[in-house]
Structures are given as structure tokens and as C-alpha cells.
Amino acid sequence: MAGCCGGCGVEAARLQAGQRRVLRIVLWVNAASFLLMVGAALYSRSSALLSGALDNLGDALTYALSLAVVASSLRAKAWVAMFKAALILGAALAVGGAIAWRLLVDPAVPLFGTMGWAGALNLAANLYCLWLLRPWRHGDVNLASAYECARNDIADGLAVLLAGALVWLTGRGWPDLVVAGLLLVVFLASAWRVARNAVAALRAA
């Protein structure tokens, strides 16, 4: 029995070390993507790019929290997952505010060229993060919620590229706002899923 406990402890330590390594990488990737996207969003006046930037900022905070509770109890991880749901909801509200600003105050046509190259770089970074997190997608609530955030990023990246292409084809700004609106719905649904899983984990704990 003692040998089994020692072996289990070594295996748990190895598992936690792997989780920390992955979370550190995706944390820094998302922090860099946020800086890229927020600069591109301000320059191009794109609501879709701004939604991507806010998503990356939320993800960086999410991965930092996930890293902090890798070795914590299920209850602690569940509360952190609940906070992640709040961050996703905050990003959704910020996107809604950006859409309202573009509609009411600054209805300019975004620069589709900037949307294209920034969206492509962001999508590549998000695909890399999803690939790193995929083996952990059925793990505990901590890594599962991190994977949920990474999966949202793929939809976000594809949507931004679609918005840029439609702005280029139509010469109008409405595709940018439509895509931002769709991302708003994605964020709301994701916040609900993460919160629901967190509540289930709290009950189990």
C-alpha cells in the first residue's frame, strides 16, 4: 500500500507539472495575442478584432488562474471556473458595448487589410493553444474550462477572418458588426457552460 501511495504521488506530481507547463505556454501566447489584437483593433476600428483582443485578455487571466490552482482542491478549482465564467461574460458585455459604440457614435468602415493579417496571426496562435490543451479537455474542471476558452478562440479567429473578407467584398462596415454580434452570442453560451460545470463540481465537492 505504501508503495502504491508513493507511486500515485509521483504520478500526480508529474501530471501537475505537465499541466503547469501547458498553461504557462498558452498564458504567454494569449498575452502576446492580446497586445497584437488590441493594437490592430484600434488602428482598423474593427469591433470584431476588439472582441478577439478582449477574448485573449480574458484567456490570459483565465490561464493564470488555472495555473495557480493546478494542485488545489476540487472546490477551489470549481470556484476559479466560476470566476472564468464571469470573465467570459464580461468580455461579452464589452463586445456589446463596442457594437453599440460603432452603431451610435462611430459607424466607420474598418480597414479590412489589418483585419485580415491580424486575424490570421491570432487564429494561428489559437490553434496552437487548442492543440496544447486538447489532451486535457476531459480532465478536471480547471483544465476543461481552459480548453473551453481555447475552443472559443478558434470560432473567434475564423469569424474575424470572415468579417474582414465580407468588409472587403461589400465595402461596408456591417459585416464587422454582424460578426461581433455572433461572437457575443458565443461568449454568452460559453459563460453558461463553464458556470454550469463549475456548479456541478461544487456540488460534487
Automatic annotation (TrEMBL):
<keyword id="KW-0812">Transmembrane</keyword>
<keyword id="KW-0472">Membrane</keyword>
<feature type="transmembrane region" description="Helical">
    <location>
        <begin position="86"/>
        <end position="105"/>
    </location>
</feature>
<keyword id="KW-1133">Transmembrane helix</keyword>
<protein>
    <submittedName>
        <fullName>Putative cation diffusion facilitator</fullName>
    </submittedName>
</protein>
<feature type="transmembrane region" description="Helical">
    <location>
        <begin position="154"/>
        <end position="171"/>
    </location>
</feature>
<feature type="transmembrane region" description="Helical">
    <location>
        <begin position="177"/>
        <end position="195"/>
    </location>
</feature>
<dbReference type="InterPro" id="IPR058533">
    <property type="entry name" value="Cation_efflux_TM"/>
</dbReference>
<feature type="transmembrane region" description="Helical">
    <location>
        <begin position="111"/>
        <end position="133"/>
    </location>
</feature>
<dbReference type="GO" id="GO:0008324">
    <property type="term" value="F:monoatomic cation transmembrane transporter activity"/>
</dbReference>
<feature type="transmembrane region" description="Helical">
    <location>
        <begin position="22"/>
        <end position="44"/>
    </location>
</feature>
<feature type="domain" description="Cation efflux protein transmembrane">
    <location>
        <begin position="24"/>
        <end position="202"/>
    </location>
</feature>
<dbReference type="Pfam" id="PF01545">
    <property type="entry name" value="Cation_efflux"/>
</dbReference>
<dbReference type="GO" id="GO:0006829">
    <property type="term" value="P:zinc ion transport"/>
</dbReference>
<feature type="transmembrane region" description="Helical">
    <location>
        <begin position="56"/>
        <end position="74"/>
    </location>
</feature>
<dbReference type="GO" id="GO:0016020">
    <property type="term" value="C:membrane"/>
</dbReference>
<dbReference type="InterPro" id="IPR027469">
    <property type="entry name" value="Cation_efflux_TMD_sf"/>
</dbReference>
